[in-house]
Design brief:
diguanylate cyclase, transmembrane helix, diguanylate cyclase activity, Alpha-Beta Plaits, 2 domains, elongated, EC 2.7.7.65, 12 helices, alpha+beta, five-stranded mixed sheet, Diguanylate_Cyclase
């Protein structure tokens, strides 16, 4: 969602910078030809695009929704076709293309349908037959190809974004994504939207699994582990592969006790759901609740300490144990 929105905003800025001068030039040309009202409307449209582009550049937000500008543009074209001439319909092509690149997909399709229902009958009535038929055929094709092109671009951008934030082997989020999501969760916790807990875990004796069964088996274990853990997490939780066989679960709105119970459930689930009968897998887990008084770095250091403590106590365990969770959490 965010990637598609950023794509549309960047496209809006690029189109604004490139189209505003062109529209102003055409408005001057229309005024010189004596079409003062139509030229004035085009000039106002160009200035609105320029102002919106400048506002986006300063704030990153859209001041005038493009849907509003699109409606105004379609109505202006309808008026121009009737009172200036059918040549005004040529503006429908760039408007349709811009609409596809800037608007959200559903809204863009609604506006394209509205444009076809409004403009095609007018052009067929006002223009010579051959011009009207050409417009009735080429305008829908322009809309369709523009929509198809943008849909493909957004899909490719989404895939690139996924490649950037996910581990290619397991599909878990990567360390880069963890840094962003943790900062986001911390900001939400500061607005009293729920505590943040971290569960760090890794696979016990993973090197021995690779040595005994081979690296392909090790990869299978990692993939199976991620699938097993994901099935147990809530939608608001997120799983990250921090490197090698080490993982982190970010839990939002979770008390220390809830995080402890979740960690214990994950431990049992992984132990019971083997990737294959001859390959037992266990994990050790460290749990901590983020404390803003200590800071981000200290919270990460303590969850690593708790994971190390779980390994020191014999592995296949959670540290701190559930009954001592509160005493082991970061203190002021």
């Amino acid at each position: 969602m965010h990637a598609a929105r950023d794509f549309r905003i960047r496209t809006y800025m690029l189109l604004g910078v490139s189209s505003a001068p062109v529209l102003l030039a055409f408005s001057i040309y229309d005024v010189i030809r004596g079409q003062y009202l139509f030229g004035g409307i085009i000039a106002a449209f160009a200035l609105a695009i320029a102002a919106n582009t400048a506002y986006i550049h300063r704030t990153g937000r859209v001041k005038i929704p493009f849907a509003v500008m699109n409606v105004v543009g379609l109505l202006t074209l309808a008026w121009g076709i009737q009172f200036v001439g059918h040549a005004a319909a040529l503006w429908a092509y760039p408007l349709a293309i811009v609409n596809c690149f800037v608007s959200e997909r559903r809204r863009a399709r609604i506006m394209m349908a509205a444009g076809m229902l409004l403009l095609i009958p007018l052009v067929l009535l006002e223009a010579p037959m051959d011009h009207g038929v050409r417009f009735a055929l080429t305008y829908p094709l322009t809309c369709w190809f523009s929509d198809l092109a943008v849909s493909i671009l957004e899909k490719l951008q989404h895939q690139l974004n996924e490649f950037a934030i996910r581990d290619p082997l397991t599909g878990a989020y990567n360390r880069r994504c963890f840094d962003f999501r943790l900062d986001e969760a911390i900001e939400q916790s500061r607005r009293d939207l729920g505590a943040v807990s971290l569960i760090s875990f890794d696979i016990d004796h993973f090197k021995a699994i690779n040595d005994q069964f081979g690296h392909d088996a090790g990869d299978d274990v990692l993939v199976h582990l991620v699938r097993t853990v994901r099935a147990r997490l809530r939608k608001v939780d997120a799983l990250f592969r921090m490197g090698g066989e080490e993982f982190m679960v970010l839990c939002r709105g979770t008390t220390p006790q809830q995080a402890q119970h979740l960690a214990e459930a994950l431990r049992r689930e992984v132990m019971e759901c083997r990737p294959r009968p001859d390959l037992p897998v266990t994990i050790s887990l460290g749990v901590v609740q983020y404390d803003d008084r200590l800071g981000r770095a200290e919270g990460l250091r303590r969850v690593d300490q708790n994971l190390y403590a779980a390994k020191q106590t014999g592995r296949n365990t959670v540290w701190p144990p559930a009954e001592s969770a509160e005493s082991e959490l970061p203190a002021a």
